[in-house]
Amino acid sequence: MKTIPDSSIDAHAACYNIAAVERDTGLSKDTLRVWERRYGFPKPRRDQHDERLYSLPDLEKLRLLRLLIDYGHRPGKIINCSTAELAQLISSRAPIKSPPPEIASIIDLLLQHDVENFRNALLQALMKQGLLRFVTETVAGLNHWIGEAWLSGRIAVFDEHLYSEHIQNILRNAIIAQPGRGSGPRVLLTSLPGEKHRIGLLMVEAVLIAEGAACVALGTETPIIDIKNAVPAYRVDVVALSFSSAITQTAALAGLAELRTLLPETVEVWGGGGALVRARKAAPGVLLLRSFDDLRYALERWRVEHVAH
Amino acid sequence: MKTIPDSSIDAHAACYNIAAVERDTGLSKDTLRVWERRYGFPKPRRDQHDERLYSLPDLEKLRLLRLLIDYGHRPGKIINCSTAELAQLISSRAPIKSPPPEIASIIDLLLQHDVENFRNALLQALMKQGLLRFVTETVAGLNHWIGEAWLSGRIAVFDEHLYSEHIQNILRNAIIAQPGRGSGPRVLLTSLPGEKHRIGLLMVEAVLIAEGAACVALGTETPIIDIKNAVPAYRVDVVALSFSSAITQTAALAGLAELRTLLPETVEVWGGGGALVRARKAAPGVLLLRSFDDLRYALERWRVEHVAH
DNA sequence: TCCTTATTTTGTCCAAGACATATGAAAACG
DNA sequence: CGTTTTCATATGTCTTGGACAAAATAAGGA
User: Using the CA of A20, which nucleotide's C1' is the nearest one?
Assistant: First the structure.
């Protein structure tokens, strides 16, 4: 059977088959082929068996396109812009501000590959701010500005990997250090298949635990049917799902709606994350959380409602 | 654009379109269609536009098939068995021996969904044994026996997710609690694209740090080209890659050989993990680590060689 | 300004064929 | 007899071009 090719074989030539491009850009194979047919981009060269081989510049342009489309641009309007024009569209999208100094100093340490001091700076920020402010201010800020840096090519893939690992270390350390369950609802926390971003999930878990809720964290990519089965097993009151911007808003809302139909009425369904901040309305019985404040309000509301009974 | 249908319309009929089945079973749309063409299963009914609508029983049988195929069965041989026969095949995979009592008691807590006591049992084991023994005995044992339980169908998907999350919490907590760099080599630790298993990587990181080496952990799935670029940036002495049994031995050895050609002679390449325990020999200049003891010997050897200079 | 209704855009699904690679069995070797 | 090599089969992924529904936009009307 054909598998994702060993990218090492052509690492220097930077050739990607359609499966690798799907994985790296999040654009489906069908979409890639239909864009080629309709718009003439991307137009990859072929190997000896007429299979598509995408170049690294194509891949970069596709990533920019994906980003702009997520932001609201239409594919047909921008697909024939040059990579430079797309990059300019992105940078012109938001007024170019620089990150606040406390964020900038941490990012500088990452860019200088100073692992030790990077780790220490994160730990110090956590100690100084406490878990709640650390998550909602420092980590959220770092995510945003590191995303910006990645878009403009100022940060390497391996730097981002290192960042993700260290944030996970810190957040999980804080999570396990917290005392046992609190007074709040039992919240099952996970993401649906295809959603691989772990940091958002850990941030939510940290906030929930800091607020005294009991969290059952299943990590990323739990199939819907297994979420359904886990709800009675762990006797949870709320199922919370996280959707990063890597997933389309439509897919996120559809997943939430499907889950809603599978769970008993007594179990609440909450959804949040980058894919949903601009969503208008969700299926009935699904609560959208567009910020960490929304999350805290939702917790408080749950407590009020369940004390009354 | 077509999306996952609002299943609330047909919630009781439990109909899934091909995208939902792909998401929940991990079988690609192409695979589902070609199975239907070749083997006659699954044979979903169609909606008014001739699009496939899979039933819940089909979905359940597909998940059993996926499980058995992962374990080594061939699709063509088992695809026309009934769901009951498949379930029996799975349960007949019972382990020959039972786990030692200290492992069994922890697994029992997981099977009873007792999150609090499960967490506490892990923490207690860590305290009692120290990081090194905890990793090489308890965590290694848990991985093995939970794998067995998964194969025989005695453990749910969500239980395994919860296990993975908690082990990560504990290991990362231990990792960050360690004092800064030690005397040993700087080791870059990661896995190649396609290798998603994080726990093995974290176990290695814990052992390295306990032994006083400085670890640059990049998490899973770092493209080879990015590993190459990270080596000078972080000035590492050793690149260590982890390969779980989910990857074939051939693929693991090929990846190591490829990396070896891309790195300068002065940087060592180490490989380990389930895929390589039975490997005979690797490419020249690649060190195979078949056990945690091998890892510790390799560290000691490096230190001896680099003190002499 | 808001709601309803056309029109265009855009992503997903389909079919059937082709083919490379994983797997397992048979053959040749040490 | 154990080990590697060779071959055949099984199996998953890629191909093309057509079709069409849902989303997004534009146009019309209260």
Answer: D13
A30, A58, A93 — which closes off a domain? A93
How far does CA A57 lie from the centroid of its chain? 24
CA of B165 to C1' of D28 (A): 56
Distances (CA, A) of A53 to A13, A26, A226: 11, 17, 37
Chain D: positions less than 7 Å from a protein CB are: 4, 10-25
Residue B308: Cβ-neighbour burial (10 angstroms; 0-12, 13-18, 19+):
exposed
Specify whether A109 is located in the same domain as A153: yes
For residue A167, the surrounding DSSP H or E stretch is helix A157-177
DSSP H or E segment with residue B68: helix B56-71
Distances (CA, A) of B199 to B139, B171, B251: 9, 9, 20
Cβ–Cβ < 8 Å for B188, B205: no
Same domain, A218 and A233: yes
Q: SS3 letters for A33-95?
A: HHHHHHHCCCCCEECCCCCEEEEHHHHHHHHHHHHHHHHCCCHHHHCCCCHHHHHHHHHHHCC
Report mean pLDDT in 10-residue bins for chain A, 309 residues.
42 69 86 94 87 89 87 89 87 72 95 94 95 95 86 84 96 86 86 86 95 94 90 96 78 82 92 78 80 92 81
Residues A213 and A279 in one domain: yes
Beta bridge partners of A54: A16
A229 lies in a domain?
A: yes
Subunit contact B116:A170, Cβ cutoff 8 A: no
Determine the residue among A24, A33, A109, A161 to mutate to test chain B binding: the one whose Cβ has the most chain B Cβ atoms within 10 Å. A161
Domain of residue A136 covers 101-176
Same-domain check for residues B155 and B226? no
DSSP class of residue B54 equals B
Q: What is the Cα–Cα distance from B217 to B274, expressed in whole angstroms?
A: 19
Instruction: Look at chain A and report how many structural domains it folds into.
Output: 3
